[in-house]
């Protein structure tokens, strides 16, 4: 299914580190890459390096004074709340600019590879920092690498980009960057803003010509409801939009074990979504697919397995869900974290769902979220909102 696939990686990407005890611990991406290597998933891709995004590239999304402000914090690690750095979510640290610019550079490298045809799909698991705003850090995010990659693609001549965000938190920063730009379709499936940060992402937020799409799911939603919502909203819109490139953000904090949110997906449900987005890239975007990581705060049990499946799916060589994790990786997990690693690659679930076309239930909170999203934006795209 896939042709050339690149994974962008540099060991310095783990320098994006807010310090001990912070939920966004860089060990999660370190363990991901180690698991992908030990399972030989990386044998099916080309692993390439990256360089930091330049100031001009960062300025595709961020204000120049903000970039200079981040650089100032970077010199000595002193907080500067004007730029949102020095809060519990975004602690200041020396080197924050360089670390953040490298993450952005990795997503730019992925976008370049896909746009120039060097790769059909390209993955940056360290990316997906979707909350950063033009002039402030927010939600563990300093520079908004998915938005920067999208803006760069537009600068190179892309006429339409579809962005699908499956993180449990609303992709507010990417939505804000392109809210009035009809060339960019942003779709976010997330826990309801009534119960989770950042408090945005209601269905009524529709952007330019219905190109901001929000599916706000109730706390407690699991595989069946989440996949029902995904298939009721995402494929019809992306197919109708016919983007030049599909960009996706794969925060795996929708998992039941994640400590910061309240959805109840399994690894099996998540990998099913990865496969659906892979198919959609081929159906609607000529196979051009730029993939980023995102949130995910169960550092051992969830993130490494989820994103190893993501890389394998992009490579066109999915990992058997019944596969055991390699002993070498379990040993590395123990060494790096002191924790006991999971023994198999998924939760052993069968993520079945019923298509919304088989009937709408107005008493069901998931179905109400689906209908709210479809009613808000489907007519803009010539689609019937009624299931």
UniProtKB/TrEMBL annotation:
Q: Which InterPro entries match?
A: AcuC, HDACs, His_deacetylse_dom, His_deacetylse_dom_sf, Ureohydrolase_dom_sf
Superkingdom of the source species = Bacteria
Show the Pfam families listed in the entry: Hist_deacetyl
Q: Which GO terms describe its molecular function?
A: histone deacetylase activity
Give any single GO term for biological process.
Answer: epigenetic regulation of gene expression
Q: Pinpoint the Histone deacetylase domain residues.
A: 22-312
Q: Which UniProt keywords apply?
A: Acetoin catabolism
Q: In which pathway does it act?
A: Ketone degradation; acetoin degradation
Family affiliation: Belongs to the histone deacetylase family.
Q: Any idea what this protein is called?
A: Acetoin utilization protein AcuC
Organism, as annotated: Planotetraspora thailandica
Phylogenetic placement of the source organism: Bacteria, Bacillati, Actinomycetota, Actinomycetes, Streptosporangiales
